[in-house]
Amino acid sequence: MIETLQNSYVDVIEKLSVLPAWLVATAVIAVALMLALLAHGIIVRTMRRTIGTRHPRVRALLTNSKGPLRLGLMVLAASVAVRIAPMDNDTAAVLGGILNVAFIALLGWIALTAVQIMSQVYLQQFRLDIADNLLARKHVTQVRILKRATDVLIVIMTVGAALMSFEAVRQYGVSLFASAGVAGLAIGLAARPLLSNLIAGIQIAVAQPIRLDDVVIVEGEYGTVEEITTTFVVIKLWDWRRMVLPLSYFIEKPFQNWTRETSALIGSVYLYVDYTVPVARLRDRLEEIVRETPLWDGRVVALQVSDTKERTVEIRALVSATSAPTAWDLRCEVREKLIAFLQQEYPEALPRTRQLVVEEFPGARETDRSRPSLAPAGH
């Protein structure tokens, strides 16, 4: 059978010898690429019909690997076509170099696809759309950051290998990195922020000072961690603005993470009232408020006199909730209802300014000249 194919090939070449060599070589390479694309379509279609319909994960694997499979078949077909096509040595050498670069790119693409598939398969066991998603956010953050760092390393290694496949570029690269001149120093300084953020990303993935959907206070702003990339973190602020910070910020500077260990929080409400406020009655009203609202998680409720000032008393109410947004809504509700309670039941307990009215009498002694009286501000 092999001899038959060889004879057929020789016959075809003899018949095409009347045409220009470059046209025959182009036709051979084009036919080879078309056959590779046809083979790719047949393989993908067959696997989808036989395996993909019964196994969703295998179907996802086929979807992610379509590109590398197509490129691999095209590189294989082109390499065979270059060997059998009639062309001079210089042209064959140029095409061979292009195929080497394509093969290196194929290996890098396969590595990126493998990392993508492994991360997807691993994260399928975790869900972020549930209330208690602390474990899921931990693993998703780790996998995404490590995946992006790995992708960067794979791309750098692939580009480096492709450039080193050419003699001129290889010599230039070696001389550039071996030199100790200003250019080498400038390149090192320019690459320092990128490398520091890359290392910071690995530290964040391992130590996890922040995770996706964590509630944080950064630069005095309240927000949630919306996205963690290879070089920066996007914080979605409470008013839907976005704060973009480098990864190294969360390694080098302090910040608040309200959901580091658990999403439950204790919220505080401060009231500044008159010294005549009935603290015990206010404490009873706080307990009634939290029992009536679904925002309270049933764990913490307390009311205390936390400080005294010249004209007012500081009252601090503590209530707990299952998450930061819920705690914020609960604090607002408690604050509104406690103020309404004081306005309706104990208006005299609201902050007031006292004035001392002094009346003078002719001939009276100095100690009898003043008579104190209490009156609200404005009277």
Question: How would you describe what is shown here?
Answer:
This protein folds into three domains: 11-207, no CATH class; 215-257, SH3 type barrels, CATH 2.30.30; 265-349, Alpha-Beta Plaits. The protein has 379 residues and is of the alpha+beta class. The protein has helices at residues 2-16, 21-52, 56-84, 89-123, 134-164, 167-178, 182-207, 249-252, 279-292, 324-345, and strands spanning 215-218, 221-228, 232-237, 242-246, 256-257, 265-273, 301-308, 313-321. The protein is built from ten helices and eight strands. Helix 3 packs antiparallel against helix 4, helix 4 (89-123) packs antiparallel against helix 5 (134-164) and helix 9 crosses helix 10. A hairpin with a 4-residue loop joins strand 7 and strand 8 (313-321). The longest helix is centred in the first third of the chain and has 35 residues, at 89-123.
